[in-house]
Write a structure and sequence with these properties.
heterodimer, A: 191 residues, mainly beta, Immunoglobulin-like, four-stranded antiparallel sheet, 9 strands, elongated, B: 194 residues, alpha+beta, Ubiquitin Conjugating Enzyme, 4 helices, 28% strand
Chain lengths: 191, 194
Amino acid sequence: MTDLRINPTFFGINVLDTPSQINKALSGKVTNFLEIDLETIKGVFAFQPVLQVELSPLPQSVVFLGIKFTTLKDGRQIHTSRLAKRADSKLLFTAKDVADLTQYSRGDDMAGLWTVEASAVLFGKKVLGVVKKSTISDFLGSSKYFKLTSFELTIVPTVGSIVGNLNPDGTLRANARIQRTADVTVSMNDI
Amino acid sequence: MTTNWFTDFPGSWDPKKARANFTKGDPLYSYAAVIKSIRDWFYLKKTKVVGEENGTGVPRIYKDAGLQVYVDQFKWGDFVQVDGEPQPLLQFKMRVFRDRPQLRRQPRPPELLIDKWVEIRFDPRWPYKPPHVRIDDPRYKRFDGDMHSNHMYENGWVCFFADSDDWVKGRDTIISFMQAFFDWAVWHYDKHGW
């Protein structure tokens, strides 16, 4: 039997403003290991994982590739999403079921380390009995997955810089103002 | 309970302990604003080590004084005891160059006035009182000459605030404080040659 090779060629997230609307500007900006300012990303609806994989060699028989996206906030699992597609040389998985992030819209709740993990499981027709949505869904829910790849995004609380309010000699302009951030926790890591 | 101007961390401050709020107080003078302002003003970049930053090779230019200031390294994670209380210690590895006039119509490279570590220590009453600054070099720290004519206190701390209104909260910042230090450094160099 030949080993099937699953090669993730892209893993990222779409930033959604609403359940159906992608924020293209932010989605293009958010890359793996990025550190992004809270003010920039605050108020988004969801992070939608997108994974592209290449399979080789292409199996002769009917094989499915199941993908599980796990979203973690500061290491704590907050959401999982599973989907499957029939194996092909190139496959694109876009999570349909996403975590609603509006619950993190207060204060600096969004700030922290966000991790999205992609893991996979391969299965044939035989394990399903009958190939239909419900049997696939049951199988995806009860399977063991192996980790494929992960994505990290750090959201840091906004710290005001006074530099835009300074004269060339470093003194404050008469009408200097910066946004107050006293209600957020800014650790030494975040400064 | 101990209260510090730079954080609302409850109890005795220990920099190794977890998360704390560094945006305490006036947002123009919070510890986070001080650090971020220095980073932005001197074009610095964070490293992977919290509290250690590097220069990007871009100088801050003080046009009127003809100075170019390169901060090559900046450390802000250490604290020192002042009057029994911890205070942030800012450390800068900096090079200060001064433009030189042309000689026989030929441009000359700028002269290097300072190539040393400089440290800033905060007063517990910040931002109502200015911080303290000195050049971290034995020549300054162990200086026992005429302190008055060098405008230095004991252990090399620089004295450039003669009047009570030389430092005004609401007008002065950590950045204008550093400019006052550069003015002193140029004055001291011209007067004493070091």
